[in-house]
């Protein structure tokens, strides 16, 4: 079943056509890679998928529902979660509170419940804490639950961002350069984590990455972007043997 | 079992806090009854409580939401005048009931103004928001100055003096309690997430616009209540009380107490209300001494030795609380 269907997506920044006729189809439970040289428009695509930018033309649909003209938080609620290239955590909140923010729409109680400390308030908060702890355990972050997010080591911060994104119960997870700044050892661990997340949570994952070992190692399908348009699309083997792709990356 | 425990530990903490609050209240009332705390001191204590309400509520927008606003005195003015207007024109009901109604109306009218000001302005950030809220405060002041129905420039007189220390004290306790309940809820966390990272909050499914308005309106409500208390204490309201200076005064207390610290807000409100009164003895040097004291406090607040000492005291309290 198709989770995400993007057809002829395009965006202009003033006179600049940043992305042009971009197409993408992601199936259920698929691990998809989006690669391309610097400035190709990968993050711009992410920003259009999550509502940060409004596409100039084209269509985005998630499980048949149109995402155009929706705001960021609406899209997040509909089932697209993301991480950021430059980590964006709630730095002064504790690790567990960061995850609880992602759980905002999972456990609902009103302001009245909060102000008058009703039974519902305690029950929901307890359930939130429990689910947040379970999520943290997946990333071996549970021992850090009470410390401030900004005091986590870099690699752990990246994982916490993924945990927070998963807390929104997404159907599709977008990872923007998850391995950036990691050493080979950490990258290997990350590869395992990404696969584990996909299998355990049964979601589709779309990732932008420059680390070819990671992309070729775990992605089932890859789209290559160059100067804002799709250069190639296929399995890792097809991409590696594609003359156009090699030319874009290495020159003639 | 564990669920019960969580709720239980909360109620236990609340019981301890409430006892402390009661003890302080009983002590002040006792001292007042035997005449050690005279009427002048009770007046200062009442102003302190009003300031606690103002500072804690402003901390919701400035400290927790992270938006600098300079119009808190404007909301206080709206609340003060609408509460006074109601109690002056409502007769035939018991005093206490009229006062409660007046305070509620003061808070609600301030809230409505919070929405009117908040919806268009909260799209702005940082200095822009500060300037626009500053302008709002000035507009309110000038409208009141020219509104004859509430006395205009000569002041709104003859407001029944319902306020007393007890009212102010318990309303301050209520404000602190409500603010703590808000901050420790999922809505409160959403408010803090706006301060921490708006884009990440949106990506986590948080409607940041809604929570900006919520925090703004929450703060406006309590500022309105504080205004109502103030009006019914003074018996007269003058627009010039709610000048820009008043907003700054509240903001100074928030900053000194620490952005996003409710306990700090309460302490700062107490110190900075009592201090100017104590400095009355040095008459002509009063404002100078006040400024110097402010600078000294800001400097020493982050002194490493002092920070260590407060941490030690905190730990001791925590240990004592656990063994009890």
Quickly list its features.
heterodimer, A: 252 residues, alpha/beta, Rossmann fold, four-stranded antiparallel sheet, B: 324 residues, mainly alpha, 13 helices, globular
Architecture overview:
The complex is a heterodimer of chains A (252) and B (324). Chain A is an alpha/beta fold and 252 residues long. Helices cover 40% and strands 25% of the residues of chain A. Chain A is built from ten helices and ten strands. Chain A has helices at 42-49, 72-78, 95-102, 111-116, 119-138, 154-167, 184-201, 212-218, 236-240, 243-250; strands spanning 2-13, 16-27, 31-35, 57-62, 65-66, 80-82, 172-176, 204-208, 221-226, 229-234. Chain A has a six-stranded mixed sheet with strand order 6-7-8-3-9-10, with helices on both faces. A four-stranded antiparallel sheet of chain A has the order 2-1-4-5, covered by helices on one side. In chain A, strand 1 and strand 2 form a beta hairpin. In chain A, helix 3 crosses helix 5 (119-138), helix 3 (95-102) packs parallel to helix 6 (154-167) and helix 5 packs across helix 6. Chain A is globular and about 65 Å long. The model of chain A has no long low-confidence stretch (mean pLDDT 92). Chain B has 324 residues and is mainly α. Chain B has two domains: 1-37; 48-277, no CATH class. Chain B contains 13 helices and no strands. Chain B has helices at 2-33, 39-64, 72-89, 95-121, 126-145, 165-183, 186-196, 198-203, 208-234, 244-257, 262-278, 286-301, 304-323. The longest helix of chain B is centred in the N-terminal third of the chain and has 32 residues, at 2-33. The mean pLDDT of chain B is 89. Chain A binds chain B through residues 50-52, 71-73, 76-77, 81-82, 84, 88-93, 97, 100-102, 104-105, 107, 109, 111, 113-117, 119, 121-126, 128, 164-165, 167-168, and chain B through 2-3, 6-7, 10, 178, 181-182, 184-190, 192-193, 196-197, 199-208, 214.
């Amino acid at each position: 079943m198709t989770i995400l269907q993007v057809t002829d997506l395009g965006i202009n920044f003033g006179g600049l056509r940043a992305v042009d006729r971009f197409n993408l189809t992601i199936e259920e439970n698929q691990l998809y890679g989006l690669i391309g040289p610097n400035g190709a428009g990968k993050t711009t695509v992410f920003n259009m998928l999550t509502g940060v930018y409004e596409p100039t033309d084209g269509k985005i649909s998630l499980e048949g529902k149109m995402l155009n003209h929706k705001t960021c938080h609406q899209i997040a609620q509909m089932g697209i979660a993301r991480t950021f290239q430059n980590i964006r955590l709630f730095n002064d909140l504790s690790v567990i509170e960061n995850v609880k923010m992602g759980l905002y729409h999972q456990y609902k109680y009103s302001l009245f419940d909060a102000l008058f400390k009703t039974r519902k308030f305690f029950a929901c908060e307890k359930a939130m804490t429990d689910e947040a702890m379970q999520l943290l355990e997946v990333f071996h972050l549970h021992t850090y639950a009470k410390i401030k997010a900004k005091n986590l080591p870099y690699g752990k911060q990246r994982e916490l961002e993924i945990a927070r994104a998963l807390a929104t119960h997404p159907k599709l997870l977008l990872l923007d350069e998850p391995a950036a700044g990691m050493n080979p050892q950490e990258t290997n661990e990350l590869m395992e984590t990404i696969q584990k997340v996909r299998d355990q949570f049964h979601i589709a994952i779309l990732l932008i990455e420059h680390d070819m070992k990671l992309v070729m190692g775990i992605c089932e399908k890859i789209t290559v972007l160059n100067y804002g348009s799709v250069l190639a699309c296929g399995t890792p083997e097809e991409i590696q043997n594609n003359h156009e792709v090699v030319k874009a990356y290495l020159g003639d | 079992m564990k669920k019960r425990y969580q709720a239980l530990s909360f109620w236990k903490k609340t019981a301890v806090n409430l006892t402390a609050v009661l003890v302080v209240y009983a002590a002040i009332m006792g001292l007042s009854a035997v005449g050690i705390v005279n009427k002048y001191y009770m007046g200062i204590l009442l102003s302190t409580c009003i300031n606690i309400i103002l500072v804690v509520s402003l901390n919701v927008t400035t400290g927790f939401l992270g938006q600098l606003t300079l119009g808190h005195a404007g909301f206080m003015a709206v609340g003060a005048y609408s509460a006074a207007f109601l109690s002056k024109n409502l007769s035939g009901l018991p005093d206490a009931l009229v006062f409660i109604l007046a305070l509620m109306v003061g808070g609600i009218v301030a809230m409505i103004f919070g929405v009117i000001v908040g919806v268009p302005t909260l799209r702005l950030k940082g200095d822009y928001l500060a300037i626009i809220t500053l302008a709002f405060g000035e507009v309110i002041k000038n409208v009141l100055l020219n509104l004859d129905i509430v006395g205009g420039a000569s002041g709104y007189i003859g407001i029944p003096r319902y306020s007393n220390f007890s009212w102010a004290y318990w309303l301050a306790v209520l404000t602190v309690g409500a603010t703590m309940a808000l901050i420790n809820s999922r809505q409160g966390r959403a408010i803090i997430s706006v301060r921490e990272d708006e884009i990440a909050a949106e990506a986590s499914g948080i409607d940041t616009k809604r929570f900006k308005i919520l925090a703004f309106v929450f703060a406006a409500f309590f500022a309105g209540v504080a205004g109502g208390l103030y009006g019914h204490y003074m018996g007269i309201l003058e627009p010039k009380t709610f000048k820009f200076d008043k907003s700054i005064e509240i903001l100074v207390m928030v900053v000194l107490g620490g952005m996003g610290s409710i306990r700090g807000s309460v302490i700062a409100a107490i110190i900075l209300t009592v201090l100017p009164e104590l400095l009355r003895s040095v008459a002509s040097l009063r404002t100078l001494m006040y400024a110097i004291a402010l600078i000294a406090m800001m400097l020493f607040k982050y002194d490493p030795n002092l920070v260590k000492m407060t941490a030690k005291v905190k730990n001791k309290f925590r240990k004592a609380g656990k063994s009890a």
